[in-house]
Predict the structure.
Amino acid sequence: MRLALGIEYDGTDFLGWQRLSHGPSVQAALEKALSKVANHAVDVTCAGRTDSGVHGRCQVVHFDTDAERSLRSWVLGACSNLPPSVAVLWAQPVDDAFHARFSARARQYRYTLLNRGVRPALDARYVTWERNRLDADAMHQAAQALIGEHDFSAFRAIACQAKHARREVQAIGVHREGDKVMVDIRANAFLHHMVRNIVGSLLPVGRGEMPGAWIGELLAGRNREVAGPTAPASGLTFLGPLYEDGWGLPAEVVL
């Protein structure tokens, strides 16, 4: 039987999603918990790996098991064996053809900037502090140059292992809610550090240091060295993947 799970996590104290030999990862914590519930070793496959310090609102994974447990038992059993910073939100049986990564049609991220003169205390783990006043409307207009299928080499980490830099950004928006500025982006897939590099390049536009047209120029130039710096991991949350309706998954991950 193949099961899909929705996973929520605070990535601050992990070295990223992927299992590592030299430090804590979300994948290792989840597999350890699920293995206890299943009473056999469990290997999970995720929709999209996140980097060290990045959070997950609804990461989707799948795994195969012969263990007979109720869906409630999978959820509560896993949660009882996970650290407080990770939770299983739901469990759903899926067809054997379902693949958490390859069946996904899109992925969504949100980057949250706390835009005020005083550093955060309560939200420090989940935002990036920007003391200079940002023009969210200018950032939004500049970001529209990124919509469509393009070569995103200008926003690709040097260590990125993807075979090519072409990705399709389906939607991107920047809006303000009080003293927070949010950057929401949806694409078919993402390059290593792509969202954080885009945000790092939108910040000079928001501060008035660069014109809005600069973002389109960076995209066309394909030169990572002249784009903005990589924004910190703390402000980034993987909202989750999106799938076609036929898999029978919860509405929050369906197109």
